[in-house]
Amino acid sequence: MHFLDDSLFPENQEKLVITAAPYGPEWEPGDFPEDIPVTMDQHVQAAVDCYNAGATVLHIHVRELNGKGSKRLSKFNELLGRLREAVPDMILQIGGSISFAPENEGEEARWLADEARHMLANLDPAPDQVTIAINTNQMNIVELMTADDIAGTSFERPALYEAYRNMVVPAEPAWVEEHLRRLRAAGIQPHFQLATVAQLHTVERLVRRGVYTGPLNVSWVAIGGGFDSPTPYSMMEFIRQVPDGASLTLEAIMRNVLPINTMAIAMGLHTRCGNEDNLWARKGEKQTSVQAIEQLVRIAGELGRGVADGKEARDIYKIGEYWDTADEALAKLGFAPNRKPGQVGFTFHA
Which UniProt keywords are given for this protein, alphabetically ordered (predicted)? Predict the structure, then answer.
């Protein structure tokens, strides 16, 4: 992404898209009972509250009545149907990890099998987006958590902590290509959840080879433990390599969320918050998902940057849009064109 002399002026920036992640699949309801929904009515109300606070993208997981993360697609179908009525303008984004929470104490925290995740393309009603991981990768979500972060939560149990410390994201090349194919066939847009610049490079190759020829909505997921660290150096290098035609959201973990989101707002990028990413306002003081959204809206207001409504967010994400060829996709996204036979030197769009 290129920053011009006037790129930090809010009147030259897209309106802010705020993603809410209020379903906290890694937590147990008792970790934050005031903010972690269990019943279907509570799931729907959380979405309504997040939308009213200013979020226009909803990152979705579902919980069973026993408090465990649901792996049943029928529960997702039920929630999607109700959300289409309750928050019709929100972009509904299914978390491609589904529920990675361990079923029982001492078991692994793991994503569902390949074919089970492919079934997300068959959800009815269809979501607007499904998040997709690229390249199998360690996902140790506790590496950056401090003792203060997990104080009073289920993560203080050694067996559960170890389950999350050793979690792996399965995303082999053949699975990724098939998943992208099924999502496109179902009219569902992928949202790329990327851990490193190397994964961004793989996405670019998918575009160059014509495997994926649609809008590029990317989250930089800076949670450590196999993913990038939430440092300005890692952040700016990732931003530098994202093409100008992409939409980029910055995502972090725990008390890194607010400073990373604040920088995203100032730079014209997009944000994500909610109890899936962070429980805390400041050390020892919990913050609900709605409070986190309201905080970002206030910061955007102080900087003079507008917050996108549902229609504006859909336009920014290019929901429903696809292109026919790799050449067209490269041009739309702002990547340099592929090399033509016999062409030498650097390539560029005339």
Answer: Metal-binding, Transferase, Zinc
Alpha-carbon torsion (186, 202, 199, 242), positive or negative: negative
Residues 202-247 pLDDT 10s: 999 999 999 999 999 999 999 999 999 999 999 999 999 999 999 9
Residue 62 backbone dihedrals phi, psi, to 5 degrees:
-130, 145
Which H helix or E strand runs over 273?
strand 270-273
Q: How far apart are CA 327 and CA 337, in angstroms?
A: 6
Answer yes or no: are the C-beta atoms of 23 and 43 closer than 8 Å: yes
Q: Count Cβ atoms below 10 Å from residue 63 Cβ, excluding itself.
A: 26
Amino acid in position 4: L
Note the pTM of the prediction, 2 decimals: 0.97
184, 233, 237: which is closest to 206 by C-alpha? Answer: 184
**Segments in the chain below pLDDT 50:** none
C-alpha atoms less than 13 angstroms from C-alpha of 162 in its C-beta half-sphere: 7
Q: What would the pLDDT profile of 267-295 be if each residue is shown by its tens digit?
A: 999 999 999 999 999 888 999 999 999 99
Question: How far, in Å, CA of 297 to CA of 302, rounded?
Answer: 9
